Prior knowledge:
Layout: E1 30-33, H1 35-40, E2 41-43, E3 49-52, E4 59-62, E5 70-79, E6 85-95, E7 97-104, E8 110-117, E9 128-134, E10 140-148, E11 157-167, H2 168-174
Antiparallel strand pairs: 1-11, 2-5, 3-4, 4-11, 5-10, 6-9, 6-11, 7-8, 7-10
Amino acid sequence: MLKLEKAQKVSPEVSITRVPPKDELPPPIWESKGRQLAENGSLISPNASFTRTAEDGSILLQTDDSKYDAQYSIETDLLKKNNEYLTDVALQLKRGRISIKIAGVDSGRTYFSTVEVLDWRNAEKPVQTLRLFFVPDRDEKVKIVVSNETPNPPTSLVEIKEIKMFDWARRRSAGREFRAFSSA
């Protein structure tokens, strides 16, 4: 049986940073959790569905049986070009294989993409926070998209707890970890 390796994280714009500990994060510039995930997000696939969990109001997304098709999407506020952003996505993959992508709403350009796979030896993954760094090349809103990624069984089940976005360039310059030079 052929076993595929986990795909590497991809971003066309290189971020210049180190991975920050949670206690060093600035306040988020945008966040969505609990009820907001259901109210502000939308299902893209007509055969996908989500329900809100009773404990914390997070959403439980049941994907359809398509391969690589977008299932759920949520838009952020307007972001500035050439700024580095960090997006934390807290989720628990309960079944299958999904991808998470950050793309421009107007341009459609993919700024970051990663694949999460549930190892066949585990019943489900613990809650984890995916850290996604990206640099938009224009001023625009971005959307966070959850898609199928050839799951086996044919549908995936993922609980999305919260999504937070941080202006990491602001934090980086405040900490003097990065200095930008201009010819102006």
